[in-house]
């Protein structure tokens, strides 16, 4: 690994020198800072049998596959950086979650005049003007309007401070650990920061929400005239890698740009090819390297990795494998299966790797009864996370299976049992009190007792029982009378008390 790092540093310096010499031809001049940033280690290159990532002149960069969250490329991705206007991805996400497109947004004095002169705006908006939330989101995502960012924040939360609290709460929910937002637009504040990894998580959430993805992935929009009737000519998304842009990239569907003198160039880009959606984030970059480096990283992702469906390839964890379902029940043989592997789950692997090289782990920590999720299968490749899928309880006739109750797909008296210690899912017969059997036994005992009582009464009535007892049952044999010497038995005389 150290050797690989050394080679990478030497290559970076060589490329930097070469690029500097040929700057006139390539129209790219690297600053001293850029050359130093190019030598920073690429952490993803330390993964065994993982394709080596390219040189990047950003201080922080990351390439993530959107559906799985797999990190394909990572360079200083957890380092705190100033985000500039890529902050607006979070602003738009919260607006989409907490408002409707037809709501009316009123622009306050603060939203129109509370931003520095020369900063990015939609323009033509006066204090008191009213526009739809849809208009504000197009202005926010395509033109990076700072006045629309403030107006959205005030409309959703009442103030920019309250909205910042919402932003930080949402960031924490998404798993961001190096993020603190203080405003909805990203204009510089030393305490307003995030990192490349956290921005990839926010970008992932944007792609998962169609109500904001629509705006982040729009190339052009015809903005209505101003309140004074003036035509707005700036109608194109500022992201130049989208269709028709100067740095157009095949498969680029959207993203968000950002720049301040303190943050440098920041860029979030979404691209789709071959069934994969990649999120690329570069932070603290020079112009135009944020475009060219992003293209290089996207090429690296699409050229070196493949997306494999789990349910189509997994053989160890399946309903046909007896080692996975430890049960003597015939439920999986004669009836519809109770649970299944979610068919949408996938993993991302190097193109020269096979599915069998990924290691699955059965994880019960993400079990969710409300979502009918029993567990998840988490996959790793040489200890690097590459994707997951859920194991779901099947639904029958619109009703969801419950963890502790019977279902129509199970035999009477069976239930699902989850053993978190041994990581097993089993079908168990429930030990229930059988009231019918108890009733039959009780009736039988009562009838038997009645028969015994009746028999005793009948036998006594006909004197059979008493004779039987005196003659045979427990009868003591009387000792024989002593015989006289004459050999005759002596009997008491009934005349012995008579006097003559």
Q: Any guess at the CATH architecture of the largest domain?
A: 3-Layer(aba) Sandwich
Total number of beta strands: 17
Percent range of helical residues: 25-40%
Chain oligomer state = single chain
Radius of gyration computed on alpha carbons: 42 Å
Number of separate helices: 15
Number of domains: 3
The CATH topology of the largest domain is given as Beta-lactamase
Question: Would you identify the CATH H-level superfamily of the largest domain?
Answer: DD-peptidase/beta-lactamase superfamily
Mean pLDDT: 83
- Terminus-to-terminus distance: 144 Å
Instruction: Please identify the structural class as seen in this structure.
Output: alpha+beta
Detail the poorly predicted runs. Answer: 1-7, 9-26, 325-334, 398-411, 472-477, 484-488, 493-500
> Could you describe the largest sheet, including whether it forms a barrel?
6 strands, antiparallel
Overall 3D geometry?
A: elongated
CATH class of the largest domain: Alpha Beta
Strand content: 15-25%
What would a concise description of this structure say?
The chain is α+β, with helices and mostly antiparallel strands and 500 residues long.
